[in-house]
Design a protein that fits this description.
The chain is mainly beta and 185 residues long. The protein is built from one helix and 16 strands. The chain has one helix at 169-175, and strands at 5-11, 17-21, 32-36, 40-44, 50-54, 60-65, 71-74, 80-81, 101-108, 114-120, 124-127, 135-137, 147-149, 154-157, 164-167, 176-181.
């Protein structure tokens, strides 16, 4: 698949210039379906935690400061993030099931914060490993909140909102599964 880029570049926090992807020109009609396969540790945010999501090369994919009560997802030491809707609002810890997740078990962290293991119930359209160069999804989670993707990353489209974001290759390989082929609708 050939992706279309705008005539614009944005640098990530590591200073890497990334071409801005034209998300309006991506065709997901022949995409596959996928979903998160792994359970994920989710911790209730105290508020003010700066979260840098890093890719396999330890480059910043996105940066976010968590608000009190949001759900901080921790797949591993570097794949940490707060899922946000198209307006940039983070998923609330106490409303995790309304965000499309199943609670597997409730736990507490060593510092006494509420935490749980969850599994995603949502299925998304995916285009595995279509990113071949440093790429930016501008305003992925609201104005000024960009996502930076690098070679091997997968694009995903939420079936309801049609919002497009990406998944780093290592994160995809470790936590996602392909569930089928989509049909154009």
């Amino acid at each position: 698949m050939i992706l279309t880029y705008l005539d614009e570049k944005i640098a990530n926090e590591n200073g890497i210039e990334c071409r801005v992807l034209d998300t309006t020109a991506i065709d997901f009609s022949e995409a596959r379906f996928g979903r998160k396969s792994a359970t994920t540790l989710v911790i209730r945010a105290n508020g003010g935690e700066k979260i840098d999501t890093l890719n396999k090369d330890q480059l910043v994919e996105s940066t976010y400061v968590a608000n009190e009560g949001e759900a901080i997802f921790c797949n591993n030491e570097t794949d940490i993030y707060v899922p946000r809707n198209s307006e940039g609002v983070g998923c609330r810890f106490d409303q995790i099931e309304e965000c499309g997740y199943e609670v597997v078990s409730a736990i507490s962290t060593e510092d006494g914060r509420k935490a749980m293991n969850i599994k995603n119930t949502k299925v998304a359209r995916i285009l595995p490993e279509v990113i071949t160069e440093p790429t930016c999804i501008k305003d992925a989670w609201g104005e000024g909140s960009h996502q930076f993707l690098f070679e091997g990353a997968t694009l995903k489209q939420d079936p309801e909102s049609k919002k497009i974001t990406g998944i780093d290759k290592n994160a995809f390989d470790a936590t996602w599964e392909v569930t089928g082929i989509s049909q154009a609708r």
